[in-house]
Amino acid sequence: MRLVPSVQQLETEMTAWRRHLHANPELGFEEFETARFVADKLRSWGIETTEGVGRTGVVGTLRGRLGAGRSLSIRADMDALPMTEARPLPHASRVPGRMHGCGHDGHTTMLLGAASALVRSPDFAGTVHFIFQPAEEGRGGALAMLDEGLFQRFPCDEVYALHNCERPLGEIAVHRGTVAAAADRFEIVVHGRGGHAATPHLAINPLPIAARILLAIEALPGRLTDVHAPATVTVGSLRAGEAFNTIPDTAFLTGTVRTFDHQVQKTLETAIRRIAKNEAEAFGASVDILYETPFAPTINTPAQADAMIAIANEVMGPERLVVDPPPEMGSEDFCYMLEQRPGCYFLLGQADDAHQAAAHDTNYDFNDAILPIGASLWVRLVERRLSARGAS
Ligand SMILES: [Zn+2]
Ligand SMILES: [Zn+2]
């Protein structure tokens, strides 16, 4: 392990920042105190700081002392979750029903640590932007920043992010392609016409229509899409009717589609819409369809993944590196930044005896032992990718 010495010196300070953020969690787009904490730190180090990007987002901009060059962005998420912390830790949440249950307190701290180390020895050419993003947990923070011109106002050639994970402490997983799934959500309402169960010819029963739709769409993966492209369609709820001898007016289906590829995702959405509409019309009914895509697939570009692999090797050594493990079924809104710029999102293991709980578990806590690892990876990434000789 070859951590950056100036980052190691910050370990005590970073631990204090992380625990302060942990004790004071804020939900997506409500990160007012968190954003102020971040902005105050950046400004105190003389880093050009812009607040209010994507409502509560903050961007810090630092130029290297080796002259002009390329530009790189690193993103950390800042939001907490609406859940109650189970463990009575000294730094446990002071806000009932709010908890940093996904480690975004740690992500924010690692990026602050890297900024602090880089400002003292900015041995790189070009520009680095530190992106502190709000509202990652399904509330659209990445899109909010992008919609406000993140990459136009703070131009960059490539973008990076990390997430802590349940792998052993210090293990780094890098995917040279898809990292995480797209998670779509659909709601289908079948409008028939109610009536007496004894005279179904006078009614349009939405129930068998909903059943046909369910069976048809759950069978799509591996039939309409390539069996080698993983996909699942799951109907998680089906509701209709109240009495055994009555035909109801409507039936509801809701479910989710998980995919790892944009084309597969689009193919399934189109097919679900078409099947629902056609099945309903075939029997004289109609449908309303709500189809949402809060998370696209998270897909790394090979050159940036390879760059991250080289950095991980340099800082942690090959024995802590895992390349191309199976993609995660979870989702990540950094996907939208990766749709606009080449980049890499990687995973950093934090599990030890005291940190066994997974993210989103009420017993979870970010492991402060990985703060200097994450911050060192960011510092070396900036130095190597923005070296005066060009990207190495
Ligand atoms: Zn989360
Ligand atoms: Zn998270």
Layout of helices and strands, plus pairs?
Layout: H1 5-8, H2 11-23, H3 32-44, E1 48-53, E2 57-63, E3 71-77, H4 104-120, E4 127-133, H5 141-147, H6 150-153, E5 158-168, E6 172-174, E7 178-180, E8 182-191, E9 195-196, H7 206-218, E10 231-240, E11 246-247, E12 250-259, H8 262-282, E13 286-295, E14 298-299, H9 302-316, E15 321-323, H10 335-340, E16 343-351, H11 371-385
Parallel strand pairs: 3-4, 3-5, 5-16, 6-15
Antiparallel strand pairs: 1-2, 2-4, 6-16, 7-14, 8-12, 8-13, 9-11, 10-12
The chain binds zinc ion (2 copies).
Strands of the widest sheet, in order across it, are: 1-2-4-3-5-16-6-15
Name given to the CATH homologous superfamily of the largest domain: Zn peptidases
- At the first level of CATH, what is the class of the largest domain? Alpha Beta
List cofactors, ions and other ligands.
zinc ion
Mean pLDDT comes to 96
